């Protein structure tokens, strides 16, 4: 799935001269946490609710002469902004957010701001892609790291006419892979039995004997 499929196209923005008070009002009014700073359609920075809280006067230190909130956002905005492109993949956006510890990615195309995607957008999309928002069951196995092992295991689900919502493959112990299937089948005992009979080690659901039946 691509960024352009989930990004918000109507982006709330501010100009460098916008005051901190005005920016705070926008965040509260629209219940958002990030404001790209633009000059025309060119991105020049970004300011977040956290930036504004840290820049704002403390309740204990506030005085009638304090004009902190009348400063422009250009005085606190981050100028080096991590961005995405509409044709980037969702998983790449997730990686960027994780690596840089940021909560959003402005989306640029040919240097113009065309959208924004947030951490919440990415998490919601991943939940949908993994199928965990639907009634389903998880079956996880460990297989040798060889070509064709995923297809072999998937054949078991096919024989039981169990629709697979998602498949996640990640490294297991030495020379193995862990494969997590999410299936619409709610009764999975026979699927688990046949996976074990085919020689696969079951990691989930828990089974009393962890040795695959096919290895005996």
Any overview of this molecule?
There is one protein chain. The chain has 216 residues and is α+β, with helices and mostly antiparallel strands. It has 2 domains: 3-127, CBS-domain (Roll), CATH 3.10.580; 131-215, ACT domain (Alpha-Beta Plaits), CATH 3.30.70. Helices cover 28% and strands 25% of the residues. It is built from 6 helices and 8 strands. The strands form 3 sheets. Strands 6-7-5-8 form a 4-stranded antiparallel sheet, covered by helices on one side. The protein has a two-stranded antiparallel sheet with strand order 1-2. A hairpin with a 2-residue loop joins strand 1 (34-39) and strand 2 (42-48). Helix 3 packs across helix 4. The longest helix has 12 residues, at 119-130. The two termini are 42 Å apart. 21% of the residues are buried. The mean pLDDT is 91. It holds the Pfam family ACT. This is Acetoin utilization protein AcuB. InterPro entries: ACT-like_dom_sf, ACT_dom, CBS_dom, CBS_dom_sf, Diverse_CBS-Domain. Residues 138-210 form the ACT domain. Residues 7-68, 77-136 form the CBS domain.
